């Protein structure tokens, strides 16, 4: 299951010299926890999420993925693809407890841990606590301990920067290890489809394909001027990525960017009065989370997904922090009132507070859905 071996580079703060970076990613984490805790689910197609008409798949076991079931997929579509799919409601506290176990294992080897979500993290082991010296060996030990202590499997990527380590961790999933040495990064990236690059979604991949860019090698052929013309602010990242360059450090205290909550409705809502009722409930949930972490923020964003899946976001920023629950409710209400009446009923609503300051700037997982992986529930 191995591929090569490391010594590493990293920065965007910026890292000095070659670094040794490990990206650890648990395999189908939520679904695997459910299969572990209920032996009757072993080998069965399992989805974590809601099974009702408006439910969404948050995580899918590898047995379910064979049928095309993926995270963020509507549950009704998942059942069409896999009629025998078994739905399990998410158990947040159990997943958090297991995640803490895993991070305790990481901490035995390095203090430089950057969590991306409950189930994945970057580790900088350039100077590891046990004096092992080999990032590959450390990754092997971590994976073995995770299996022994949690009865779950993890995949790992080892390389000289975060970008390549993350790509490598997905290379031999599940339960795999891939190591990319210094000098091998550009060649490794060249063979990968651009859809694998973090930040390149389906629409971005379609745009690139129209420009003749299908894989990393195609992307590397384009100069910076071309990329800036077609991809704007993302151009510099794409230029570096195509060459296997990533200068970002592993940041143990990754600042949280926002706090928010969203809800998908059982039935589409078309009346302003009902939308205001739901908005009040969502604001209460968001403010409870804000108080828990001692956060303050200046920007309020209202998110609406219409019945045809069109997404609308509307935001308002203050010159100071939002002062309390009532002000958050007022600002969110004004954003909603400004767009009513809507051309279609609403199937999802969310409220987010961003431009944060305060205690929340301590380590806070920020995650994006990874292809066939799982949707972040927190």
Can you walk me through this structure?
The relative contact order is 0.14. The protein has 13 helices and 12 strands. 35% of the residues lie in helices and 21% in strands. Helix 4 runs antiparallel to helix 5 (135-150) and helix 10 (224-231) packs across helix 11. With 378 residues, it is an alpha+beta fold.
SSE map:
Elements: E1 21-26, H1 29-37, E2 46-49, E3 57-60, H2 62-65, H3 75-81, E4 86-88, H4 92-107, E5 113-117, E6 120-124, H5 135-150, E7 154-159, H6 162-169, E8 177-179, H7 185-190, H8 202-210, H9 216-220, H10 224-231, H11 235-241, E9 258-269, H12 272-293, E10 295-306, E11 311-317, H13 325-339, E12 346-358
Parallel strand pairs: 2-4, 7-8
Antiparallel strand pairs: 1-6, 1-7, 2-3, 5-6, 9-12, 10-11, 10-12
Helix pairs in contact: 4-5, 10-11, 12-13
Write a concise synopsis of the structure shown.
With 378 residues, this protein is an alpha+beta fold. It is built from 13 helices and 12 strands. The strands form 3 sheets. A 5-stranded mixed sheet has the order 5-6-1-7-8.
Quaternary? single chain
CATH superfamily grouping of one domain:
DNA polymerase, Y-family, little finger domain
Percent range for helical residues? 25-40%
> Describe the biggest sheet?
5 strands, mixed
Shape: globular
| Poorly predicted runs of 5 or more residues | 1-13, 360-378
CATH class of one domain: Alpha Beta
- CATH architecture title of one domain: 2-Layer Sandwich
Helix and strand content put the structural class at alpha+beta
Number of helices: 13
Strand content: 15-25%
Mean of pLDDT: 87
How are the strands of the largest sheet arranged?
5-6-1-7-8
């Amino acid at each position: 299951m191995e591929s090569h071996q490391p010594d590493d580079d990293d920065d965007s703060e910026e890292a000095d010299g070659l670094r040794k970076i490990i990206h650890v990613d648990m395999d189908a984490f939520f679904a695997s926890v459910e299969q572990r805790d209920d032996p009757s689910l072993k080998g069965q197609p399992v989805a974590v999420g809601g099974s009702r008409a408006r439910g969404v798949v948050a995580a899918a076991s590898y047995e379910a993925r064979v049928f095309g079931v993926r995270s963020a997929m509507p549950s009704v579509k998942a059942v069409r693809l896999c009629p025998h799919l078994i739905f399990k409601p998410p158990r947040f506290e159990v997943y958090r407890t297991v995640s803490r176990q895993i991070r305790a294992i990481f901490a035995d080897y390095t203090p430089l841990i950057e969590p991306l979500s409950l189930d994945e993290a970057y580790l900088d082991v350039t100077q590891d606590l046990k004096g092992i010296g080999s990032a590959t060996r450390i990754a092997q030990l971590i994976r073995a301990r995770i299996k022994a202590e949690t009865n779950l499997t993890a995949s790992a990527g080892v390389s000289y920067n975060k970008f390549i380590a993350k790509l490598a961790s997905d290379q031999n999933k599940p339960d795999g290890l891939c190591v990319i040495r210094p000098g091998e990064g550009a060649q490794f990236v060249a063979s990968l489809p651009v859809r694998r690059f973090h930040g390149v979604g389906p629409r971005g991949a379609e745009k690139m394909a129209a420009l003749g860019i299908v894989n990393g090698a195609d992307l590397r052929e384009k100069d910076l001027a071309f990329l800036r013309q077609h991809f704007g602010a993302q151009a510099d990242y794409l230029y570096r990525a195509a060459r296997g360059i990533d200068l970002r450090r592993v940041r143990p205290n990754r600042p949280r960017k926002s706090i928010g909550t969203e809800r998908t409705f059982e039935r589409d809502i078309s009346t302003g009065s009902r939308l205001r009722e739901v908005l009040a409930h969502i604001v209460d949930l968001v403010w409870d989370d804000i108080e828990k972490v001692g956060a303050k923020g200046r920007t309020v964003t209202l998110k609406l997904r219409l019945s045809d899946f069109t997404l609308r976001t509307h935001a308002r920023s203050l010159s100071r922090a939002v002062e309390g629950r009532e002000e958050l409710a007022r600002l969110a209400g004004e954003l909603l009132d400004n767009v009513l009446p809507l051309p279609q009923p609403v199937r999802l609503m969310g409220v987010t507070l961003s431009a944060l300051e305060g205690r929340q700037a301590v380590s806070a997982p920020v995650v994006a859905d990874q292809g066939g992986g799982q949707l972040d529930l927190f």
